[in-house]
TrEMBL record:
FAD binds at residues 58, 122, 319, 325-328. Disulfide bonds join 49-54. Its cofactor is FAD. It catalyses: N(6)-[(R)-dihydrolipoyl]-L-lysyl-[protein] + NAD(+) = N(6)-[(R)-lipoyl]-L-lysyl-[protein] + NADH + H(+). This is Dihydrolipoyl dehydrogenase. Its main location: cytoplasm. Pfam families: Pyr_redox_2, Pyr_redox_dim. The gene is lpdA. NAD(+) binds at residues 188-195, 211, 278. Belongs to the class-I pyridine nucleotide-disulfide oxidoreductase family. One of its GO terms (biological process) is 2-oxoglutarate metabolic process. GO terms for cellular component: cytoplasm. It comes from Vreelandella nanhaiensis. It is an enzyme of class 1 (oxidoreductase). Its EC number is 1.8.1.4.
Length: 478
């Protein structure tokens, strides 16, 4: 029998590595198991997020955005440059450097906090044992008083579009294109599809997004979704709603996609096809038969509000449990679980988890949408404000978008905040903090905001809840 630990965490993604570091900070003897191996054959931490997800996609989103700014918008503000050229190889090199810095940072944090890194595939074999099979196939069993499963998720594959090397790919492959495809198809108009479609559209691809649902971004407030769809269409993204893919065929290094829509059978040909139809929990093979941890029919692990499974001292967090598949949600669950194991009282506010789509402009939201409130029979009042009336947004040459606040009609408590704008992912933190502290719309309306700042749009939206916005004509008089 190998070493005994207070805590063993399976998975070193945003949930797992944070849980391991927090547990170690609490004085617990902690190990973290990771099976991810990079192209050089070295075990790396960070999971999907740092290696093939959040971080690399944001690197390409930022570089492609800068390219479009230089190509299309510098002249508008008086900056004259020769026509810029996109160096895809250099962009990928930058993306990889960002990955390496982040991954290396986690390894350094493990060392600094005394977390033991176990390389290989982890499997829970009992409520106190984890079997780790290294890259050579050798298995070692470790014991622990507590086990945290943070195995993450993987892209969903669909039968009509079987993956074909470098032609039909998931989001992972879409981050590795070495040249801009002339015709790019994207299946799925969700967060990942819109972000990756935006990257390659900015760099010159003709992008068509095929979405099976009839509505665009149904999880987003309808007013924000409508504005976002309009802005993305203006940028040249061809988003086809109600388009259900039924098959595909690779012909002469091209992909022929068949789909049905309101007009019947359709067909389109692409040079590359990205399949972005969601992710599924990576739990197969992580829990041995007989351990007793309950899973649902989709492979998600059943947990309570504090991420306890039905087996004592076994916890699960992140993408392999209920709730949104978001890195920051996984991280906060990791902190909560580590604190609970250490004997502290801890909980997480699942009503105040922000979501962001890093298109340009960005889309961000927290809490209820107006349609959510209506479905629950909650009477609300709302306030909206356009960034076209915000001085800093105009000075930034980024007047697109709007901010919207949803408040309880009776108590004035903020139930949701929704933004489409430049840097919406940063601005949304105001809504998260407000909801965390149970703030009212009046609280934000009475707050002094810096001028000029794009945050003033949040202030004006809060004022608009009672019809008191200063910088636009008010519909309501109080």
């Amino acid at each position: 029998m190998a070493d005994k630990f207070d805590v063993i965490v399976i998975g070193a993604g945003p949930g797992g590595y944070v849980a391991a570091i927090r547990a170690a900070q609490m004085g617990l003897k902690t190990a973290c198991v990771e099976k991810w191996v990079n192209k050089e054959g070295k075990t790396v931490h960070g999971g999907t997020c740092l290696n093939v997800g959040c971080i690399p996609s944001k690197a390409l989103l930022e570089t492609s955005h800068k390219f479009v700014e230089a190509r299309d918008h510098f002249a508008e503000v008086g900056i004259e440059v020769d026509e810029p050229k996109a160096n895809i190889a250099k962009m990928l090199e930058f993306k990889n450097s960002v990955i390496n810095k982040n991954v290396g940072g986690i390894s350094a944090l493990f060392k600094a906090n005394g977390v033991t890194s176990l390389e290989g595939k982890g499997k829970v074999t009992s409520s106190t044992e984890v079997e780790v099979t290294d890259h050579d196939g050798n298995a070692t069993t470790y014991t622990a008083d507590n086990i945290v499963i943070a195995a993450g998720s993987v892209p969903v594959e669909i039968p009509p579009t079987p993956l074909t090397d470098d032609l039909i790919v998931t989001s992972t492959g879409a981050l590795e294109f070495t040249e801009v495809p002339k015709r790019l198809g994207v299946i799925g108009a969700g967060v990942i599809g819109l972000e990756l479609g935006s990257v390659w559209k900015r760099l010159g691809a003709e992008v068509t997004v095929l979405e099976a649902m009839d509505s665009f971004l149904p999880m987003v407030d309808s007013a924000i979704a409508k504005e976002t769809q309009k802005l993305l269409k203006k940028q040249g993204l061809d988003i086809k709603l109600g388009a259900r893919v039924t098959g595909s065929e690779v012909k002469d290094s091209e992909v022929v996609v068949k789909y049905t829509d309101a007009d019947g059978e359709q067909e389109m040909t692409f040079d590359k096809l990205i399949v972005c139809v969601g992710r599924r929990p990576y739990t197969q093979g992580v829990i041995a038969d007989g351990v007793g941890v309950e899973l649902d029919e989709r492979g998600f692990i059943f947990v309570d509000d504090q991420c306890r499974t039905n087996v004592p001292n076994v916890y699960a967090i992140g993408d392999c449990v209920r709730g949104p598949m978001l890195a920051h949600k996984a991280s906060e669950e990791g902190v909560m679980v580590a604190d609970i194991i250490a004997g502290h009282k801890a909980e997480m506010n699942y009503d105040a988890i922000p979501s962001v789509i890093y298109t340009s402009p960005e889309v961000a939201w927290v809490g209820m949408t107006e349609q959510d409130a209506k479905a629950k029979g909650i009477e609300v009042k709302t306030g909206s404000f356009p960034f076209s009336a915000n001085g800093r947004a105009l000075a930034n040459n980024a007047p697109e978008g709007m901010a919207k606040i949803i408040a309880d009609a009776e108590t004035d408590r903020i139930l949701g905040m929704h933004i489409v704008s430049q840097h919406a992912g940063e601005l949304i933190a105001q809504g998260v903090i407000a909801m965390e502290f149970g703030s009212s719309a009046e609280d934000l309306a009475l707050t002094c905001y810096a001028h000029p700042s794009t945050s003033e749009a949040i202030h004006e939206a809060a004022l608009a809840v009672e019809g008191h916005a200063i910088h636009m004509a008010n519909r309501k008089k109080r």
